[in-house]
Structures are given as C-alpha cells and as structure tokens.
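Could you help me review a protein record that somebody else here produced? What it holds is a sequence and that sequence's fold in token form. I need someone to confirm that the token line plausibly describes how this chain folds. Take the sequence as given and treat only the tokens as open to question. This is what I was given:
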Amino acid sequence: MIKNKGFATAGSLFSNYELSDKGGHITQEFQDFGYRLACDLDDLKHKSLYIRLAKNENRSLLEKALSYVQDANARSKARLFMWKLKQLKETKKDDQK
C-alpha cells in the first residue's frame, strides 16, 4: 500500500507542536510591540522593560533604534538598542531647543 505523500489532515499538522501557555495575556498593541522588540533583540528576560518603553516612548524612536540594531552585527543587541535609543532621544531634545 502506498502512503499519501501529498496532503495531510489539518489535525495532524499541529500534533507535533506543543504550546506552553504561562498565563500571560497580551491585550494592548503596545504590549505586542514591546514583546516583539524583546524577541528581535534576543532579550526575553527583560520583556517588561521593552513593553514599558513601547508604552511610554515615541514609537518612531524605538523603530529607528531597532532598525539600527538589525543592520549592525553586535554581540549584545539589547545594549546597542538602549545606547542608540538614548542617543536618538538626546538628538531629538537638542533639535527642540
């Protein structure tokens, strides 16, 4: 008998995956953005920091800093991100004067 190699049932597609729900729920957009920042920076240990930044800081500054980090080849993406964010905030403050 020949096995069908082309298609699989929808239920069998997800049978090999195990989801671990630790009870945290993302209900706001800024929480999602902060969590994605933490994932992109490989720093899930400090995801609450990035969620707070996403809530309180200017989104364009965060996106510019993230873009800078993604283009760079750094050992610590999180450290480079925080440095660039600080630099962008100081530049913005100087421009407003």
